[in-house]
């Protein structure tokens, strides 16, 4: 990874390149889908219980605080 790639990742993590505000805490957050990419960081996170009222995705902190979806076999 070169310096430019590292800086881009760090900007996303620190919300310097925010695409929207988190609907729960209003913190600036980044969505790769909203930024025009085909995948996003949240695709690799375990599925969570979410309220369908959200029009935008949550920040990492708020998403991480949500309950995991329980799977019954």
Concise structural overview:
The protein is mainly α. It is 23% helix and 5% strand.
What would you note in describing this structure?
This protein has 73 residues and is mainly alpha-helical. It contains two helices and two strands, in the order H-E-E-H. The chain has helices at 3-13, 60-65, and strands spanning 20-21, 28-29. It has a two-stranded antiparallel sheet. Strand 1 (20-21) and strand 2 form a beta hairpin. The longest helix has 11 residues, at 3-13. It starts with a helix and ends in an 8-residue tail after the last helix.
Blueprint of the fold:
Blueprint: H1 3-13, E1 20-21, E2 28-29, H2 60-65
Antiparallel strand pairs: 1-2
The helical percent reads: 10-25%
The chain-level mean pLDDT equals 83
The count of strands amounts to: 2
Largest sheet: 2 strands, antiparallel
- What percent of residues are in strands? 5-15%
Please tally the helical runs, counting DSSP H or I stretches of 4 or more residues.
2
Q: Numbering strands along the chain, what is their spatial order in the largest sheet?
A: 1-2
Rg, Å, rounded: 14 Å
Which H/E pattern describes the elements? HEEH
Structural class of the helices, strands and pairings? mainly alpha
* Contiguous uncertain segments of 5+ residues: none
Shape: globular
Determine the N-to-C terminus distance: 42 Å
